[in-house]
Design a protein that fits this description.
The chain is about 20% helix and about 25% strand. The protein is α+β, with helices and mostly antiparallel strands. A hairpin with a 2-residue loop joins strand 4 and strand 5. It is globular. The chain binds flavin mononucleotide. Flavin mononucleotide binds near residues 50 and 109. One of its GO terms (molecular function) is riboflavin kinase activity. This is Riboflavin kinase.
Length: about 200
């Protein structure tokens, strides 16, 4: 798979079209992850602009710039899928219940968020789980396993929300293949948080 790293400059993203929406497949990527995947990322969750949860109904964990480099130096901007895990501890104290620190499916956006016209490249992970609280300041680990689609610009917030919902369905279906599912128990994750795995 050939995915060119993004330049340091924001580019003009294509506008999402009706034919793109209608033509979206519900399963993406080969039967086994292929290079550059898997890509391993980790970092402390930062505050973004807070629009993910408020505007889009899709809270995201923003990674610090240096944590993005293993990905942004080898892949292009876009939407990706994989697994992620949030640490139970914050500032040395266990604050998150065990169930919230499992390895969970995620969708991730790497890009300039053209709909919001961001000035810096960001990587944001949406973990498909209902967390009772935010987890700013927690360590997050992620294994990125595949590419879903390019980042797009939108004429309405509803269009972006609709595509993110489709991204989540595509990610769940694409991860439900043995060669992807096995990364849930990868030693990169903190398995001590998962006595029942
Ligand atoms: C799965 C997923 C797909 C996304 N796709 C796009 C996209 O195509 N275009 C875009 O402008 N932003 C996209 N975003 C980024 C959102 O605009 C961003 O998460 C939102 O602005 C929240 O950012 P904030 O936490 O910094 O407020 C996507 C986010 C996710 C989680």
């Amino acid at each position: 798979m050939s995915l060119r790293p993004p330049s340091e400059e924001r580019h003009i993203a294509p506008m999402r079209t009706e034919s793109f929406r209608r033509g979206r497949p519900d399963l993406v990527g080969p039967e086994h992850p292929e290079p550059p995947f898997p890509i391993l990322l980790s970092g402390e969750v930062q505050r973004g602009f807070g629009r993910g949860g408020k505007d889009l109904g899709c809270p995201t964990a923003n990674l610090p710039h240096e944590s993005i480099l293993p990905m942004s130096t080898v892949t292009e901007t876009g939407v990706y899928y994989g697994y992620a895990q949030v640490s139970r501890e914050k500032d040395g104290e266990i604050v998150l219940p065990e169930g919230d620190a499992r390895v969970l499916p995620m969708v991730m956006s790497l890009g300039w968020n053209p709909f919001y016209k961001n000035k810096i490249l960001t990587a944001e992970i949406h973990i498909m789980h209902d967390f009772p609280t935010d987890f700013y300041g927690h360590e997050v680990k992620a294994i990125v396993l595949g590419y879903i689609r390019p980042e797009l610009d939108y004429t309405s917030r509803e269009g972006l929300i609709e595509d993110i919902e489709t991204d989540k369905r595509v990610a769940l279906k694409s991860l439900a293949r043995p060669a992807y599912e096995k990364f849930k128990t990868d030693s990169f994750f903190d398995i001590s948080n998962h006595p029942r795995l």
